[in-house]
Design a protein that fits this description.
The complex is a heterodimer of chains A (129) and B (360). Chain A is α+β, with helices and mostly antiparallel strands. Chain A has a single domain, classed as RNA polymerase II/Efflux pump adaptor protein, barrel-sandwich hybrid domain (OB fold (Dihydrolipoamide Acetyltransferase, E2P), Beta Barrel), CATH 2.40.50. Chain A contains 5 helices and 9 strands; from the N terminus they run E-E-E-H-E-E-E-E-E-H-H-E-H-H. The longest helix of chain A is centred in the last third of the chain and has 11 residues. With 360 residues, chain B is an alpha+beta fold. Chain B has 3 domains: 131 residues, Gyrase A, domain 2; 87 residues, Aminomethyltransferase beta-barrel domains (Alpha-Beta Plaits, 2-Layer Sandwich); 82 residues, Beta Barrel (Elongation Factor Tu (Ef-tu), domain 3), CATH 2.40.30. In chain B, 22% of the residues lie in helices and 34% in strands. In chain B, 48% of the residues are buried. Classes of the chains: A alpha+beta (129), B alpha+beta (360). At the A-B interface, strand 4 of A face loops of B.
Chain lengths: 129, 360
């Protein structure tokens, strides 16, 4: 599965989708879910929580391991995906559909400065070597 | 460092395995979904590459007397040929050197299967003890043998399909019994809590055996599912649930330690002199999350620690083995420190699942 070109990415393997109202939706990438394997638990940040860029704000756990999810930019959480509480495996089957949380960025420019699909792929490739 | 490989390495890669460094061995962690592989074994059949484990043959007059002294469990329990016994091998101070299975074949031959990571240490220890008390024995690491575990309710049928020549000698085996069928040594043992065989065979034959099993519908299972299966079955993992710094009585292995007979064995005096203050118990997480090794457990009687924790695919809950104070009772609620939170867990009797069914 290739990384969708309409999304932004972080070097810590989050994807970021900018919505029409300027808010962003955040999940973890295909590469990240593949590394972790079968997902069994997701803990997303509560709406209203203020986040700093690169702050640990969510946890995804597979059978194998736990991994932190980081805030891609600074801002305020507006929603958590409650559907993942009972069906965390959606992250494995549909990593770019199974969003973890939404947030309102403090600065839209921070989002624009994130990695594009090609730059993110370069990060993934460099980890493989 | 170059990773060690088993004779099935190329087969794993051809079957799409994700390979990981497992204690210096290049081993398959899964071939896709670890949870699917887990259910495959509980409900049908799967095969595991366990070539990294070591087969050791102890031969000579008096081998039983030697093992009676070497091991915490009592080799005298083995009366019929082929019968197997699980035991800890202890240091003089009671620490666990390894856990292993011995198979009684004849009064001149016991076969021993030990863990991969401890094999060299184990063999050195056995040879050192033999040199002192039974120099007539030969202790041989069978590096010429490979081993495959075929596990699940349909495991035996599949092995017989591939190795029909072993059926007559193995169809009457009870649990924890083995038959020496010439090139194939077939044992009704395993590490999953399911029925099945562990098959030892010449290294050069194992790749064909693996592919033949696959052709009759036996799917390969990685180390990931092996760990969730054994933990559900309440089986200890050496290096996690016990090691040289703890004794068998605080590692849930009291049932394997024979302190009643007059027999002396290495570590016995230390066990009698130091009654344990902690025990191994099962935990089921009541809150949402996943229990993991080394998380702190807070109880009304003092702190403990999780030794192995995971998500149980059978129970669809998180489960763990934890070393906790003796005074904690079954049914008590304890708190587990996970990141910055204290989550509730219930102390339960384990195993958590066996023979296809959850027991909690």
């Amino acid at each position: 599965m290739s990384n969708p070109g309409n999304l932004k990415y972080t070097a810590s393997h989050e994807w970021v989708k900018t919505e029409a109202d300027g808010s962003i939706t955040v999940g973890i990438t295909q590469h990240a879910q593949e590394l972790l394997g079968d997902m069994v638990f997701v803990e997303a940040p509560a709406a209203g929580r203020k986040l700093k860029a690169k702050e640990e704000c969510a946890v995804v756990e597979s059978v194998k391991a736990a991994a932190d999810v980081y805030a891609p930019v600074s801002g305020t959480v507006t929603a958590a995906n409650g559907a993942l509480d009972s069906a965390p495996e959606q992250i494995n089957s549909d990593p770019y559909g199974a969003w973890i949380f939404k947030m309102k960025p403090d600065n839209a420019a921070d989002v624009a400065a994130l990695l594009d699909a090609a730059a993110y792929q370069a990060v993934v490739d460099s980890e493989a070597h | 460092m170059t990773l060690k490989t088993t004779p099935l390495n190329a087969a794993h890669r051809a079957m799409g395995a994700k390979m990981v460094d497992f204690g210096g061995w290049d081993m398959p962690v899964n071939y896709g979904s670890q949870i699917d592989e887990h259910h495959q074994v509980r409900n049908d059949v799967g095969m595991f590459d366990v070539c990294h484990m070591r087969v050791v043959d102890a031969k000579g007059d008096g081998v039983r007397a030697f093992l009676r002294y070497l091991l915490a469990n009592n080799a005298d329990k083995l009366a019929a040929s082929g019968r197997a016994l699980y035991s800890a091998m202890l240091r003089p101070d009671g620490g666990v050197i390894d856990d292993l299975i011995i198979y009684f074949m004849t009064e001149q031959w016991f076969r021993i299967v030990v863990n991969a990571g401890t094999a060299d240490k184990d063999i050195a220890w056995m040879k050192e003890q033999a040199a002192n008390i039974a120099p007539q024995l030969t202790i041989t690491s069978r590096d010429d043998l490979a081993m495959v575990a075929v596990q699940g309710p349909n495991a035996r049928t599949k092995v017989w399909e591939v190795l029909p020549q072993t059926k007559a000698a193995t169809e009457h085996l009870i649990n924890f019994q083995a038959a020496d069928c010439g090139e194939y040594f077939v044992a009704r043992t395993g590490y999953t809590g399911e029925d099945g065989f562990e098959v030892m065979l010449p290294k050069e034959k194992v790749e064909k055996f693996w592919y033949d099993l696959n052709k009759v519908g036996v799917k390969p299972i990685g180390l990931g599912a092996r760990d969730t299966l054994r933990l559900e079955a309440g089986m200890n993992l050496y290096g996690q649930d016990m090691d040289e710094t703890v004794g068998p009585l605080e590692s849930g292995l009291g049932w394997t330690v024979d302190l009643k007979s007059q027999r002396d064995f290495i570590g016995k005096a230390a066990l009698l002199a130091n009654p344990p203050t902690k025990k191994l118990a099962g935990l089921v997480l009541l809150d949402r999350g996943v229990l993991r090794g080394h998380q702190k457990v807070k109880t009304a009687h003092g702190d403990g620690e999780i030794t192995s924790g995971t998500f149980s695919p059978t129970l669809e809950k998180s489960i763990a083995l934890a070393r906790i104070p003796n005074e904690v009772q079954l049914g008590d609620t304890v708190q587990v420190e996970i990141r910055d939170k204290l989550l509730n867990a219930k102390v339960v009797k384990y195993p958590f699942a066996r023979n296809g069914k959850g027991l909690i």
